[in-house]
Amino acid sequence: MNYFQYRHMLRFFICTIFFMSTSWVMAQEVELSKPEATSFVNAVSASAKKSKTIVNTFTQLKHIDFLSNDIESNGDLYFKSPNIIKWSYLKPYEYSVIFKDKKLYINDAGKKSDINLASNKVFKKLNDLIAKSVSGDMLDESQFAMRFYKNKGIYIAKLSPKDQTLKNMFKEIVLGFQSKSYLVSSVKLIEPSGDYTLIKFKNTSVNKPIPDAVFVH
Amino acid sequence: MRYLYISILLLSFYSCKVTTVKDYIESDVKESDTFENLYFASSSIDYVYKADIKVYGNEFSGILIIKKISEDKHRIVFTSQFGSTFFDIELENDSFKINSVVEQLNRKIILNTLIRDFSLVVDENGPVIGKYYNDSYNVLKNRNGKRSNYYFYRISDKRLDKIVQATKMKEKVIVSFNKVSNDQVAKNIKIDHKNIKLNIQLNFLK
């Protein structure tokens, strides 16, 4: 093979790889067009409005780049519209937090404490973010720069916070939605460093009454 | 009256004297003597602990991760259960780098204390300037700036049981390593401060 044949081959090879990789990426995630995005946001908002309660189980993976393994935890999640929420961790240790009445109630294996959200900007932002992401009611253009994608029957919303407090915590929040119900199936909170927390929801039931006792501290 | 003053002065001096190795027998230090702390020495283990930090009445609970990322370097990350990071620091010999820290902990005094505490916990070896023993422990003394670190090894199985950091007068910090597994992981670690209201309790998660 002479030099020109070699260059030709190389160019052909690189082009093939390039086209294969772009088509591969496109098969993975397709960005929604403007009208598609609008109808998606409306559908999510309608679903969120209808969801008075949500109960599900969750698995949480904390990915830190330098660790050999992600840190896994799991438990149950209870949400009551508009913004009462309880994360009940069962593993790796029993721990629960309830966001209610502008307070954050913590039960750490029987040891109880609370944090006033009114005096803690970071926790308040975090609470709003979590409550809204669980219900899907966070596709708000004034708060986030948003892009939407579809991938194998799952809708994906990528949100970049505009608010400085949130921006310091997370550079991007990626929400996965089930395509039929428009309910949130996963939340990925990506920190400025690239490390992330991925929460996946399962066994979701909507509008099932939740006993008041669940939200008692 | 003068005697009273002198005796009070003497008494207060006496009671201030560091009691760490008071009743121990001193022995000669050899040049080859080094202290050894292997609790965070494996680069293949993710040391993941549930951490409870009590500082002046405030409590922080979360997950503390310690990882040896290169020969002399440890990365220490404290995150909430939700995954937001409280602090992320790197320790290398006597230097440190702060990758991130939340506003509430971003005070020089708190950071310096945390850095000093964790340096004490992860320091693997170093020179010895004093040796002591009794029926239960062999103790190795190491100098660290104005403070001294006393490493207590159990005579029965030679394992490091606690480290006491003290000035000439007072004990400042006691680190105790409990429930040690066969692969040298301390499943429970307590860091108690004697002069300030700060204590840290770590329980291994994996």
What does this protein look like?
The complex is a heterodimer of chains A (217) and B (206). Chain A has two domains: 1-31; 32-215, outer membrane lipoprotein receptor (LolB), chain A (Clam), CATH 2.50.20.10. Helix content of chain A is 29%, strand content 41%. Chain A has four helices and twelve strands. Chain A has a twelve-stranded antiparallel sheet with strand order 1-8-9-10-11-12-2-3-4-5-6-7. In chain A, a hairpin with a 5-residue loop joins strand 10 and strand 11. Chain A is globular, with a radius of gyration of 21 Å. The termini of chain A are far apart. The model of chain A is unreliable at 17-25 (pLDDT under 50). Chain B is built from two helices and 15 strands. Chain B has a single domain, classed as outer membrane lipoprotein receptor (LolB), chain A. Chain B has helices at residues 2-16, 108-122; strands spanning 25-27, 34-36, 47-55, 58-70, 73-79, 85-92, 95-101, 125-127, 130-133, 137-144, 147-154, 160-166, 171-180, 186-193, 198-204. Chain A binds chain B through residues 60, 62, 64, 66-69, 71, 73, 87, 89, 92-93, 95, 97, 106, 108, 113, 122, 126, 130, 169, 189, 191, 193, 195-197, and chain B through 44, 46, 48, 50, 52, 59, 61, 63, 65, 67, 69, 75, 77, 79, 81-85, 88, 99-100, 102-103, 205-206.
Key attributes of the depicted protein:
heterodimer, A: 217 residues, outer membrane lipoprotein receptor (LolB), chain A, twelve-stranded antiparallel sheet, B: 206 residues, mainly beta, 13-stranded antiparallel sheet, two-stranded antiparallel sheet, 15 strands, 51% strand
